[in-house]
Amino acid sequence: MSGAAAPAALAEPSERVGRAWTASLSLVNGAIWAGWYGPIQILLALQAAELAPAGTAKESVLAWVAGAGAVVSMVANPLFGALSDRTTSRLGRRTPWIVAGVAGGAVALVLLAGARSVAAMVVGWCGVQLTLNAAFAAVTAALPDRVPPGQRGAVGGWLGAAQILGVVAGTGLATAAGGVAGGYRACAAFAVLGALPYVLLHRDLVLPAGRRPASGPVAVLRGLWISPRRHPDLAWAWLTRFLINLGNALALLYLLYYLRDVLRRPDPGGGVLVLTALNGVTLLGTVVVGGIWSDRTGRRKPFVLGAGVIMAAATGLLAGWQTWTGALCAAALLGVGFGVFTSVDLALMTEVLPAAADRAKDLGVINIANSLPQVAAPVLAAPLVHHLGGYRVLYAVAAAIGLVGALLVRRIRGVA
Question: In the chain, what percentage of residues exceed pLDDT 90?
Answer without folding.
Answer: 58
